Amino acid sequence: MSIVDLYEPGEPVISFEFFPPKTDAGYRALFRTIEELKQLSPGFVSVTMGAGGSTRTKTVDLTIEITREIGLLSMAHLPCTGFRPAEVGSILDRLDAGGVHNVLALRGDPPADDPNFESPPDGFTYANELIEFIVEHDAENARVRSERFSIGAACCPEVHPEAPDAETDLINLKRKVDAGANFLVSQLFLDNDKFFDFVDRARAIGIGVPIVPGIMPIATVSGIRRMAGMNGTCFPDELEMELQRVEGDDDATYQLGVRWARKQCEELLARGVPGIHFYTLNRSPATREIYQGLSL
């Protein structure tokens, strides 16, 4: 089933994102988390891939296992940095054979711990190039595919950190949609006004695909500051004051994270977003508590 079909007018689609753990204990904990969140009947789940494709095998295997063993519609993240076209084609073939037909096409980043990392000369530079390749590869193999791929792409409500300005960022985003992206999932944001303004600007330049907000519950003050810094995410004044108040208190930070994310989700849903994509950090309690408080 194609994820984009879930975003037809109707009930909002709730989805969850996970990442491949590094240890066997981490995998056992993750599958407990997935089983717990499965009770919420998510529309789909997604699995990230490490910088430079460092977890490519784990990502593909985990996405297929969630599909086959747990029975959830799953999407594999597919960053193109570090990949040759033939390698991407091989990954798509493996996903297809495993019953996975949804990918999130990303540019991705080189591994932070590999100063000698070099992209292959025949590789991809931008996500729109990857999307074009997926569409072409899909068409070439349509006769042997059990199902065509649905392609998602990422968007930044507060401008990509490497973009020179908001206008250029939107032009680049439209390139991804024009190349064949069927829906967009946003990076985390903490101020809904930023998201609504972004959607208005995207619609104004002709981006018509579903734009899904990505929500990350605050787990630790240092963690959310680090993630926000990487993505250029702004802190509303009210939230900044609250973070200063709870810093050093794990329980109070957790409660603030649940309360703030629920407030975001309530407004987003009231204003008709097609769904909510939760960045779970491989944990279930905060996401379950937020979801249960939304009366979905």
Write up this protein.
The longest helix has 21 residues, at 250-270. An eight-stranded parallel β-barrel has the order 1-2-3-4-5-6-7-8, surrounded by four helices. It is of the alpha/beta class and 296 residues long. Helix content is 47%, strand content 15%. The chain contains eleven helices and eight strands. Helix 4 (85-97) packs across helix 5 (127-140) and helix 9 runs antiparallel to helix 10 (250-270). The chain has one domain (10-292): TIM Barrel, CATH 3.20.20.220.
Total of helices? 11
The CATH architecture category equals Alpha-Beta Barrel
Spatial gap, N to C terminus: 23 Å
Largest sheet: 8 strands, parallel, barrel
Shape: globular
Task: Say what the CATH topology is.
Answer: TIM Barrel
Q: Order of strands across the widest beta sheet?
A: 1-2-3-4-5-6-7-8
Number of strands: 8
- Could you tell me the strand content as a percent range? 5-15%
What's the arrangement of secondary structure elements?
Blueprint: H1 3-6, E1 13-18, H2 24-38, E2 44-47, H3 56-70, E3 74-79, H4 85-97, E4 102-106, H5 127-140, E5 150-155, H6 166-179, E6 183-188, H7 192-204, E7 211-215, H8 221-231, H9 237-246, H10 250-270, E8 275-279, H11 285-292
Parallel strand pairs: 1-2, 1-8, 2-3, 3-4, 4-5, 5-6, 6-7, 7-8
Helix pairs in contact: 4-5, 5-6, 9-10, 10-11
